[in-house]
# Entry
Amino acid sequence: MAGKKVSVWTSIRFWRLSAAWVTGFATILLIWLTFDTMAQIRMGTDEDLKNGVAKRVPAPTVINYHIDYKMDEKRGLEAPVIGEKEKFFGKEWSKEEAAKLLHLGKLTSQAKNCMNCHTLLGNGAYYAPDLTKAWLDPMWQDGGTMQAMTGKNSKEEAMAEFLMHPDQYPTHARMMPNLKITKEEAIGLVAFLKHMSAIDTNGFPRGFSKTVKEFEAGGTHAH
Amino acid sequence: MLTSIKTHTFQSESKKLAMMYFRVAIVLFGAQLLMGLIAGLQFLFPGFLFNIFDFNVARMVHINALVVWMLYAMIGSVYLMLPDETGQKEAVGIGLGKLAFWVLTAAVAVVVLVYIFIQVGPGKESTIWFINEGREYIEAPRWADIGIVVVVLIFYFNVFATYMKGQKTGIMTVMVANLLAVAGLYLAGMFFTDNISIDQYWWWWVIHLWVEATWEVFVGTLAAYALIKIIDAKREIVEMWLWIEVLMLFGSGILGLGHHYFWIGTPEYWWEIGALFSALEPVPLVAMFVHVLYDWGKEQGHNEAHGKASAIKNGPAMAWVTTNAFGNFLGAGIWGFFHTLPQVNIYTHGSQFTAAHGHLAFFGAYATILIGMMYMGIQQAYGIERLKATFKSKMAIFLITFGVLGMAVALTIAGYEQVLVERAELGAGWQAFFTAQNLPWYVQAQTWREIMGVVTFLGFVFLVLDLLTIGKNEGAND
# Structure
């Protein structure tokens, strides 16, 4: 292939150089985008929350606030809305306490292998419901099935109770196994779930707020 | 018979080590299928092994066995081609390579036993270090991560040093550069963070840049080597194709990573980037398919013109390589493209659609060619001039391909059902999920998935029987 009349299209050297350049260029672009994305998805601060500055991933202290998921007409998708302060397990958590709790929750979510039944942010296994907006699920709301079943009168306490003894509160033939989750771990997990529901996921899962609205209106959202 | 034993004895240590890796790979492949059958059964009978061996455990071992058997077969394939491609009789430092094999195998055994018997741990750092990391596909605890890195460094030293000492073919150049990326990317998955968005951002660097970029290039190099070995394809043509494939695979696959960044908290610009580049990902897979069939037709025609019979020197390997060319395009290309655009993916993300694509893509893109490499290993180990497919070889490839295709179709139907009912109609959530899961059509699809899983397993039994006997039997006939 060293002859002078060889076309560029059949030149190994040409394709090798093209492969190297394209790969290099794509890699550099990815690294550049990674820097930009990292800056945007770094956790916000407690001050951001106080000042109403929306962050894609809010500070752990977001657990002290009411969280909603509403249609943003301008973006054409649903986005988290952080509202008034509300108590979480009957108290307001300091910056340090909230960070510690979120750490415990995230660690427990990995230690208990949640991701191999559930999806988190849509990633994982498809045996159990997606947990991205689990905190907002009508099942846990006042008047929802789970508070009645667990005999607790707040969303977070019902969730924690369920996580500790899931096999005692079956809703369907397919049940969550008992993973020997302690009380502390359960509180951590609920904090982790509440924090996750405040992440701006560009509208995934779509239609979740519709479900909540129908539930609140006493509608038949699902049987 | 005697000659085959002689060839076997005089084979290089590198090729012998390749066979050792293949043997473990096939055992893990079996484990993967068994775990899949258990997990599939739990979809139909949720009480099956409840609170004893739950879905999360079966599923974890199912996907981990998959990843590890493929890595084993990949390492085996490299040791197999290393002496041929570099022109060296022996790989440099092969003694150390053998030691690494035993260390890795012992570590894998311990990890699997812990997965099966200890399963989960308390919410402490020690669980992440010693039981499992709870991150899909790369659940291996941190101690094993570090062990894997050490073993891979030894393996890479074998490959790199042999490459530097010997001839530097295009195939080996791509292999050496690509392996460095495969190994380096693993490091992106070895840290803990409280921020789940950052967690999943880097997690995808490992998963996506493995299976949709570097592993695909790896398959390209294997196909190139296999075509030269099996049908005497011309090296210049094969290597030129390989560079074109690298160009297209990395050109689309690296930024195609963006299609995993639609919904994990990352900015909206990933919609456009992910959609554009991942939509291009099937292009190189079409090219690979065309390339394999073109070379096959060319060499066959060439042989027939000279009055010779078949161009194929290894029937079963060629069958699997061709299945790879088509399966890669179908499973990774078509099934991936189905749901890669954000407009579709907002509904299909994390549904049985994903599972359908996962099954067909891992099989089509990777399992096929790696099984083909095992047949090449056997042919070389027994010094067989022409390895013909046996009844068992044919049953194996037919049943496994039919079974996996059947599973993928069943899961696609289940996915369709789930997406329309759970996501579009009911708007996601707990009740919506279970309503869709309990629909008769969904259950029916899951039943067919399990049946097709059994078909796949039957094919696997034929495959094992064939791999165990074909060398000895065909070697004796030769």
